[in-house]
Design brief:
Strand order of the largest sheet: 21-22-1-23
Mean pLDDT: 96
Helix content: 25-40%
Structural class: alpha+beta
Distance between the termini: 5 Å
Strand content: 15-25%
Low-confidence stretches: none
Number of helices: 14
Radius of gyration: 21 Å
Length: 407
């Protein structure tokens, strides 16, 4: 279904449960290419990016099976070198994990046109830096080749994707490797736990990550809840002036919660859940994205509608400075803003219905939240982009009382 139809202007009330994290499950799926055996993951969200990832794994001979709702079994016993479908790779940013996974497993990796949301340029220079540290060299025909060896990686900037690839290569390298300045997002630490369960030795210190590579076997683990999805539903409650409870792990939200508290938002944090109570005017907001534990860049676009329906706010983007393209879609709803990348000011805005196309995953869900706050019927086309990261979005919104359908 390509279009989300929202009849907005109604406060949302109720409780939803956050699914497994998109950003956590994708590295886990690609990590199975390093193993020889069966892995079982619980809490896997049925989202578009998971479906594409499984098709890519299948090209390498990995067999996947849903053995229960949210429970995915992957058998990597017969993994072989292969070239996956280019259209699948070009639709998925997480396909960059093939760089580290295939080089570590097969001694070479074919560079391909990796996809994902096209909200900014997303180079792979840090991924290639990591490959060089582990013995890989880029050939004229676009392959990473070389004998895998233990490596020392000193990243000049924090990169989740490059850290994942460095962990992949270190986990199969015959000896000790060290990753300095790694990303420490919850989904990266989730991968660390999986690699430990699969047989690698990984020590995390204030200086970085020390990894002793081993022959890896399958493992079982539960995917952590999706912090971005949970934050999105909390923002939906606040933006519409309702009361929404999200059942999730509340330990990863400090910067997000701090931003909302400073605006005067009523957040009630409990054991395994948090409730956002809207209905009162909030003060001027301000957010500046940063690597974990800073404000997550993926919650930046969904926060903008909350700024717009209240006293406004400033947004500064340090992770993906060019991801503001979604603002033109929100302007169709009446959202007013000014500035230039990487910082914009959002002004108090009188919203009205609109018909827009989702510019990317997080910008698309920001359009949905804006439509929920605007009285009247709105249409958001290109919903496939949104479904890449939100399982059952419309059904969950309907459970909160939203008048939302798809066609």
């Amino acid at each position: 279904m390509e279009t989300v139809i929202v009849r907005g202007g109604k406060p949302l009330y109720g409780t939803v449960t956050a699914d497994g994290s998109k950003n956590a499950v994708l590295p886990l799926l690609f990590a199975t290419l390093l193993t020889d055996g069966v892995s079982v993951f619980r809490g896997v969200p049925k989202i578009g990016d998971v479906e594409v990832s499984l098709r890519i794994l299948s090209a390498f001979g990995a067999e996947s099976e849903w053995i229960a709702p949210g429970v995915l079994r992957i058998d990597a016993s017969n993994v072989r070198e292969a070239l996956p479908n280019a259209s699948d790779v070009s639709s998925l940013r997480a396909a960059t994990y093939l760089i580290g996974a295939t080089y570590a497993r097969f001694g070479r990796a074919k560079l391909m046109p990796y996809g994902g949301c096209a909200f900014c340029s997303r180079p792979i220079d840090l991924h290639l830096l990591a490959c060089r540290a582990f013995g890989g060299r880029l050939t004229d025909d676009g392959e990473i080749r070389g004998v895998l060896r233990p490596g020392y990686v000193n990243f000049p900037a924090v990169s989740v994707g490059a850290t994942v690839n460095a962990l992949f290569m270190a986990a199969l390298s015959p000896g000790e490797s060290f990753i300095r300045r790694p990303a420490r997002e919850p989904h990266v630490m989730s991968l660390v736990r999986y690699l430990r369960l699969a047989g690698a030795t990984v020590s995390v210190t204030s200086e970085g990550m020390l990894v002793r590579g081993e022959k890896l076997h399958g493992a079982e683990m539960t995917v952590i809840p999706d912090m971005i999805e949970a934050g999105t539903y909390l923002l939906a409650g606040l933006t519409t002036g309702g009361k929404v409870t999200v059942k999730t792990d509340v330990s990863h939200f400090s910067a997000f919660f701090t931003t909302l508290f400073r605006m005067g938002a009523d957040l009630r944090i409990g054991e395994g859940e948090v409730t956002a109570v809207g209905g009162k005017p909030l003060s001027f907001g301000s957010l500046k994205t940063a690597p974990y534990p800073g404000f997550p860049t993926d919650l930046h676009p969904p926060t903008v509608p909350l700024f717009a329906v209240n006293a406004g706010g400033d947004v500064s983007e340090t992770v993906f400075p060019s991801r503001f393209g979604y603002l033109s879609a929100l302007s169709e709803f009446g959202v007013r803003y000014a500035g230039e990348e990487p910082s914009f000011r959002i002004y108090p805005s009188k919203l009205h219905p609109a018909e827009v196309t989702a510019p990317d995953l997080r910008g698309g869900v920001a359009a949905v939240l804006t439509a929920l706050a605007a009285e009247g019927e709105s249409r958001i086309h290109g919903a496939t982009l949104i479904h890449r990261g939100y399982a059952g979005l419309t059904s969950k919104l309907r459970s909160l009382g939203a008048d939302v359908t798809e066609e």
